Amino acid sequence: MRRLALLLFLALPAAAAGAASLQISPVSLLLRGEQSATALQLRNAGEAPIFGQVRVFTWDQKGSEDVLQPTQDVAASPPLVQVGPGETQLIRLIRLGPAAQEERTYRVLIDEITREGEPQAAGVDFRLRYSIPLFMRPAGEPQPPRLAWRLFRSEAGWMLSIANSGGMHAQIGAMTMAAPGAAAHEISKGLFGYVLPGRTREWLLPLPAATPLAAEVQVEAQVNGKPASLTVPVTR
């Protein structure tokens, strides 16, 4: 299975080996119906022990921001880990409350930490944080995402807004967009972001602010792993 370390926060640059040594699988977690637990695997591909803390947060969205709050819905076991060189550690994510009646969304944060008494290198201490999405589903499949897309210009530049009125999250992947008769702009080669159910998410696009766009643009994107082709209105 392909392993990928998802880097959410990087304090300051440090040794590249440290950044690549912790491998996490899978990169997205799902708890279905009455399922009481799921698991992820940590593997230390480096030459030094890794000490970590595992916590679970509810995950919401407001505008262009992800909002995380501590939760008692799901517990990580064990919450503190030591993974030796070449070793693997299994982390169980255990549902503590009742089964979900609608899709619930969480983030599992894994922080590298300094062990008490561990010598530190001179200069700034360096630690990584990894963020893994966890989706808790009700029994049966929820309503699929229903997305409304639009482009608009802000003071910062061109913005993409996606509203999801469906019952399930939407993962937006590789994306291009093009005005009629113009060359396509590559927006993302891989994961672009998520839109949670009942939420609207906004992103500043990697387009020059002066880029001319017509009243509509053609967007090609991956949505939950499937190709989507759509015409998106441009508002001023």
How would you describe the overall organization of this protein?
- Helix content is 2%, strand content 53%.
- It folds into 2 domains: 22-116 and 124-136, Immunoglobulins (Immunoglobulin-like), CATH 2.60.40; 147-233, Immunoglobulins (Immunoglobulin-like), CATH 2.60.40.10.
- It has one helix at residues 16-20, and strands at residues 7-10, 22-25, 29-31, 37-44, 50-62, 65-70, 74-77, 80-83, 88-95, 104-112, 128-136, 147-153, 158-164, 170-178, 185-188, 193-195, 200-204, 216-223, 226-235.
- The strands form 3 sheets. Strands 12, 13, 14, 15, 16, 17, 18 and 19 form an 8-stranded mixed beta sheet that branches. Strands 1, 3, 5, 6, 8, 10 and 11 form a 7-stranded mixed beta sheet that branches. A 4-stranded antiparallel beta sheet has the order 2-4-9-7.
Radius of gyration using CA atoms only: 20 Å
Determine the structural class based on helices, strands and strand pairing.
mainly beta
**Portion in beta strands:** over 45%
Uncertain runs are 1-19
Silhouette: globular
**Which sequence of SSEs, written as H and E, runs from N to C?**
EHEEEEEEEEEEEEEEEEEE
Q: What is the makeup of the main sheet?
A: 8 strands, mixed
Helix content: under 10%
Offer a concise description of the structure.
This protein has 236 residues and is an all-beta fold. The chain has 2 domains: 22-116 and 124-136, Immunoglobulin-like (Sandwich), CATH 2.60.40.10; 147-233, Immunoglobulin-like (Sandwich), CATH 2.60.40.10. The protein is built from 1 helix and 19 strands.
